[in-house]
């Protein structure tokens, strides 16, 4: 993690996030914590990252997400040179999806 970000206040925030157990709890906490615009920006970056990982071209990403090319470039740079946070999350989401499919009997 970027040492400029790491401090006890950031630790407190991340510890609080780690206590959330459901999507509804996340909605409640993040709605209290962030503005609608901040949350939309975060969710847009997540969608951009998913689309970049899936090898979508910039023009498709712009049209489907409304993100600027500057935002897409920034996300692409973090995918290539960042801390691998997106990769970790995408891997875990895929694992959770497989577990859910296995639990419901839907094998892909």
Can you tag this structure with a few keywords?
108 residues; mainly alpha
Write a structural description.
- The protein has 108 residues and is an all-alpha fold.
- It is 75% helix and 0% strand.
- It has six helices and no strands.
- The radius of gyration is 16 Å and the shape is globular.
Q: How many angstroms does the end-to-end distance come to?
A: 35 Å
- In percent terms, what proportion of residues is strand? under 5%
Low-confidence stretches: none
Largest β sheet strand count, sense and barrel closure? none
* Alpha carbon gyration radius: 16 Å
- Principal-axes geometry comes out as globular
Overall SS class: mainly alpha
Number of strands: 0
Helix content: over 70%
Question: Would you list the SSEs in sequence order as H and E?
Answer: HHHHHH
Determine the mean pLDDT.
94
| Oligomeric assembly | single chain
Specify the number of helices: 6
Question: Quick summary of this structure?
Answer:
The chain is an all-alpha fold and 108 residues long. 75% of the residues lie in helices and 0% in strands.
């Amino acid at each position: 993690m970027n040492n400029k970000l790491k401090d006890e206040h950031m630790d407190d925030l991340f510890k609080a996030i780690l206590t959330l157990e459901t999507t509804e709890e996340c909605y409640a906490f993040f709605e209290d914590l962030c503005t609608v615009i901040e949350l939309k920006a975060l969710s847009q970056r997540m969608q951009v990252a998913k689309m970049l990982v899936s090898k979508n071209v910039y023009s498709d990403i712009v049209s489907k997400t409304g993100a600027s090319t500057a935002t897409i470039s920034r996300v692409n740079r973090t995918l290539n040179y960042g801390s691998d946070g997106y990769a970790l999350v995408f891997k875990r989401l895929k694992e959770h999806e497989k577990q859910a499919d296995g639990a419901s009997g839907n094998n892909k």
